[in-house]
Design brief:
heterodimer; A: about 425 residues; mainly alpha; ABC transporter involved in vitamin B12 uptake, BtuC; two-stranded antiparallel ribbon; two-stranded antiparallel sheet; 17 helices; B: alpha/beta; Rossmann fold; six-stranded mixed β-sheet; four-stranded antiparallel β-sheet; globular
């Protein structure tokens, strides 16, 4: 019995030694910051030795837990244990109609009564989260399906927002009239961006799209005659409700339902696109561009449709954003937004619709509910992103969905 | 069958990469119903030739013409790869280029792209026409997978297939574009003798059943000699011999190219 434990004990003791080294290193690194406190007025130094102990013990435990999880992950990938139970649950949800339908109804009912359960502040946060769900699903077409790394996605969001704001400001055009055109205009911009970057991929594409996003923002910031510059546009109308005046709270609820409907629409459209002739062409393009062309797929057209259809959703959301905040200026459309949306797609799981939804909810709601930790909020947020990426590089939910559907189709054909 | 009808007619093909002449005045004809092999030592320019006729490279000079039955001949020069495929030329790759993260069935369905036409609206609204086209696409793809013996793998990811099966999937995928000429780039590379033998039978069967002509690059001489009607031999971008398997195997230039000058002495 004792011999069995020996290698494990050795392993544990070596990990403990490594963790001690890590904690000593951290103590050394944070020494000037955490231990010494200089009071310039008294010209004295306060030594806070207790902090040294806290840092040491904390770093030791974090390092040890980290090592333990990494070891478990390695073991897991050897046996592929982790994957199989997830696959099994996934299969269960997809194969068993009762589970999926009742789950869907449950979520649906919860969403519908959400505004009545929670305060209008919570509802407002949820609207923002749903907006990012839609943005994520749109970017998912470009990045997740077609494999085109787009760092300037926020540009299309800005186009939609400014389109509605300007139309409303100058011509008094309402939200519902502007919404489809905001999407359409964003699609046009998607194609405009698409043309020059047709030959680029990977890093080069990322840099050019990044530049494109900045160009749009700088134009909005500097072309005062068009966009009113950094001061932005105020007094944008909220969505009309059959001409009835609504209170601010009612507006929030109304906007929440609009968002829910649009997210549902986006989900249906994107999932249908993904399993269509065009969607498969996108994925093929992502997998192997040369083979994709050799199989008779027009690279140019496929890339442009991906850019256009991805941008459309950003245009819609931009229009909603303008209607929600009633004020927009270029500060809302910085690179941070693009990075956020991209994080949603990557963290949630590239190509997976449910993954992107979960990713958006986590990334938008987490910082809100972490407000309790005040200044450590962004630290915890960043740490959770790092942890997810280390332990699940494929994203929270990887895109394995469509495969099952094909199996069913194929089996139906084999049987008769 | 008296007069051989050409399918692919390549004349005076020259391909320069900077100062390097990779292909020098190459003439190759493939007739309907033929299996033609293109052989030569490594670096002879065989794959370059494939890349030229499939539109990946733009040749410096020369004419490449494809004759589709019932249609006007099409000059392939300066056409994009996907247009070349639409005109009936499909290929496989030396280093397998499958869509790794798609299922086996999807890999074949992707290749139906150029023979189908449902668009964005069709995909979103899923009208009857789109659904019918989709169903046809699945059936056609499944039939091809049965033909190459991959029907049991339909829902596996392409990357999870054994090596030999991946090669066969590439062939099925190329067939899904409804080619009149199938270009196989080293289909037997990395296969064991048993797999190579099965491939031999598969290629012959495909020729018979699908009515395609075949042009293949191959290093496995046993395979080449047993299935090809005619053979072209390339060396350093030059055509050094052509003819039936027997003629080529007795050609002094070919023996020299493969075994070196020392043989002469």
């Amino acid at each position: 019995m004792k011999t069995d434990w020996k290698p494990l004990m050795q392993r544990v003791s070596s990990e403990i030694i490594k963790s001690i080294v890590v904690s000593l290193w951290f103590v050394f690194l944070t020494f000037p910051l955490m231990v010494m406190k200089i009071r310039p007025l008294d010209q004295t130094i306060e030594w806070r030795w207790m902090n040294l102990v806290y840092v040491g013990v904390g770093a030791f435990f974090l390092s040890f837990v980290w090592r333990y999880l990494m070891a478990r992950k390695e073991r897991g990938s050897e046996k592929e244990e982790g994957d199989s139970w997830q696959k099994r649950i996934g299969m269960k949800i997809r194969s068993d109609k009762r589970v999926s339908v009742s789950g869907l109804i449950g979520v649906g009912v919860f969403v519908l009564i959400f505004p009545f359960l929670f305060s209008s502040y919570q509802t407002s946060i949820m609207i923002t989260a749903l907006m990012y769900v839609m943005l994520g699903l749109g970017l998912n077409i470009v990045v997740g399906l077609a494999g085109l790394l787009d760092l300037g996605y926020v540009a299309f969001y800005a186009v939609g927002a400014y389109f509605y704001a300007l139309m409303n400001h100058h011509f008094g055009i309402g939200f519902w009239a502007a919404l489809p055109f905001a999407g359409g205009l964003a699609a046009v911009f998607g194609i405009l961006l698409g043309f020059p970057v047709l030959r680029l991929k990977g890093d080069y594409l990322a840099i050019v799209t990044l530049g494109f996003g900045e160009i749009i923002r700088l134009i909005l910031e500097n072309w005062n005659e068009l966009s009113y510059g950094p001061s932005g546009i105020a007094g944008i109308s909220r969505p009309g409700f059959f001409g009835i005046e609504l209170t601010l709270q009612q507006h929030t609820v109304y906007l929440f339902y609009i968002m829910v409907a649009l997210v549902a629409l986006t989900t249906i459209v994107v999932s249908r696109l993904r399993n269509s002739r065009i969607g498969r062409a996108w994925i093929a393009l992502r997998e192997d561009e040369v083979a994709c062309q050799a199989m008779g797929i027009d690279k140019t057209r496929t890339k442009l449709t991906a850019f256009a259809l991805g941008a459309t959703w950003a245009g819609f959301v931009g229009c909603i954003f303008a209607a929600k905040t009633t004020f927009i200026n270029p500060a809302s459309f910085t690179f941070m937004e693009s990075a956020m949306i991209l994080s949603i797609v990557v963290l949630g799981g590239m190509g997976s619709i449910v993954g992107v939804m979960v990713g958006a909810l986590v990334l938008i709601l987490l910082p809100e509910y972490l407000r309790a930790f005040s200044e450590y909020r962004m630290l915890a947020f960043g740490a959770s992103m790092v942890i997810i990426m280390v332990f699940r590089p494929q994203g929270i939910i990887s895109g394995i969905r469509q495969r099952y559907e094909f199996r069913k189709q194929a089996q139906q054909e084999v049987s008769p | 069958m008296t007069v051989p009808r050409p399918v692919l007619d390549v004349r005076g093909l020259i391909m320069d990469f900077g100062g390097l002449r990779a292909l020098d005045n190459i003439n190759i004809q493939v007739n309907s119903g033929e299996i033609v092999a293109l052989i030569g030592p490594n670096g002879a320019g065989k794959t370059t030739f494939f890349n030229c006729i499939t539109g990946l490279y733009e040749p410096t000079m020369g004419d490449m013409i494809i004759h589709t039955p019932g249609k006007d001949p099409v000059r392939l020069n300066r056409l994009k790869p996907n247009v070349v495929t639409e005109n009936g030329l499909a290929r496989t790759f030396q280093n397998i280029r499958l869509f790794q993260k798609m299922t086996v069935l999807e890999n074949v369905m992707v290749a139906r792209h150029c023979r189908t036409k449902s668009g964005i609206a069709g995909a979103i609204f899923r009208g009857r026409k789109t659904l019918r086209e989709e169903q046809e696409m699945v059936e056609h793809s499944y039939r091809l997978l049965e033909k190459v013996g991959l029907d049991s793998y339909v829902n596996e990811l392409a990357q999870e297939l054994p090596y030999g099966a991946q090669r066969r999937l590439e062939i099925a995928r190329a067939l899904a574009t409804e080619p009149i000429l199938l270009l196989l780039d080293e289909p037997a590379a990395g296969m064991n003798p048993k797999e190579t033998h099965e491939l031999d039978q598969l290629i012959t069967r495909i020729k018979e059943e699908e009515g395609v002509s075949i042009l293949l690059i191959e290093h496995d001489m046993k395979l080449v000699m047993s299935i090809s009607d005619r053979i072209y031999v390339l060396d350093y971008g030059q055509m050094i011999a052509q003819g039936t398997p027997r003629e080529v195997s007795e050609n002094r230039n070919v023996i020299k190219a493969y075994l070196g000058e020392a043989f002469d002495a």
